[in-house]
Amino acid sequence: MSVTHVEQGTRPTGSGPGRLLVAVYGVLALAATARGIYQVATKLSDAPVAYLLSLFAGIVYVVATFALATDRRRVAWPAVLVEMVGVLTVGTLSVVDLGEFPDETVWSGFGAGYGYVPLVLPFLGVWWLWRTGRPSAEPAVPTDGGADDEAHEPPSTLG
Amino acid sequence: MVLPLALLVVALCVVLAGWAGWFVARDRAVVLRQLWGGAVVEAVLVVQAFVAGVVALTGDHDVDPALFWGYVVTQLVVLPIAAAWAFAERTRWSSVVLLVAALTVGFLEYRLLQIWGVV
Q1: Cβ separation of A158 and B87 shorter than 8 Å?
Q2: With A11 labelled, which of A51, A141, B43, B99 sits at a CA distance of 20 to 30 A?
Q3: Each residue's pLDDT tens digit, B74-94
Q4: Chain segment A44-95, per-residue pLDDT in tens
């Protein structure tokens, strides 16, 4: 675990709501990387550009997942931005010119094959990095005033 | 792939997701009993992988092995990761992650059935 958030007054990217982001990134990283490896290994000559792009997208998701989980902002920012550019560029190209990118990558059709999660995720990532990156006096997970105290588990134990 | 086993997996995932979703709504972190529930799902997944392996070796199914086993292995790692998270994150967000994990395993089961040619 990095301690940069202590030095810079920022909050960790991998805890609280960040867990959800890391979890969804992780699922997408698995899906895209496994698909990319499978495509490159079995049928690279069919559509080399699309399949290598598939693998590249998967690797970027792996990097983003790892960086967000371990609070490495300097790695997370470019990874998330590459995804944003990637899904917008490939999404547009796949809609305009079907020949260049057959419907084979995670970014094709703006991520339609993955429920548009690849389109939404980089924007959430940028927002989360921006939000946690500002020095703030408020805690990372705001408490909600204790209106429903009986529903709260003691936060430190499992069971 | 055995259809009753697959349906059992999907049903258990829906129950686990509902349980986690209820905890999200109540602003609670994952409790140990939910992890036992996850362990039951995982046990059924292991049995299913074993059965699928036997069927794949003995029968003559026209299934791409790399694709099929890729999904099987992926499906097996999702819940353990969510469980590890439940220990690290003692807020409602561990419940959100368990919810996502259960839905993911259920969806992967659907994809496995597609790859096997059942649905």
Answers
A1: yes
A2: B99
A3: 899 999 999 998 998 899 999
A4: 888 888 888 889 999 999 999 999 999 999 999 999 999 999 999 988 888 8
A19 touches chain B (CB under 8 A): yes
Residue whose C-alpha is closest to residue B79's, from B50, B20, B38 = B38
Q: How far apart are CA B73 and CA A31, in angstroms?
A: 12
* DSSP code of residue A110: G
How many Cβ atoms sit within 10 Å of the Cβ of residue B84?
12
User: Which residues of chain B does A27 touch, with a Cβ-Cβ cutoff of 8 Å?
Assistant: 78, 100, 104
Nearest by CB to B85, from A19, A148, A155: name it: A19
B89/A27 CB distance under 8 A: no
Q: Inter-chain contact A16–B91, Cβ cutoff 8 Å?
A: yes
Q: Which of B115, B18, B16, B38 is nearest to B84 (CA)?
A: B38
Say what the pTM is.
0.81
> Is residue B48 a contact partner of residue B6, using CB atoms and an 8 Å limit?
yes
Q: How many domains does chain B have?
A: 1
Pinpoint the alpha helices (H) of A44-138.
48-69, 73-96, 117-133
Q: Which domain holds residue B22?
A: 3-116
Side chain identity at residue B116, one-letter code: W
A24 contacts in chain B (CB < 8 Å): 100
H/E stretch holding A4 reads helix A4-8
Q: Is A133 on the interface with B (CB under 8 A)?
A: no
Gyration radius of chain A's alpha carbons = 19
A1 touches chain B (CB under 8 A): no
ipTM of the complex: 0.80
Q: How many CB atoms lie within 10 A of CB B109?
A: 23
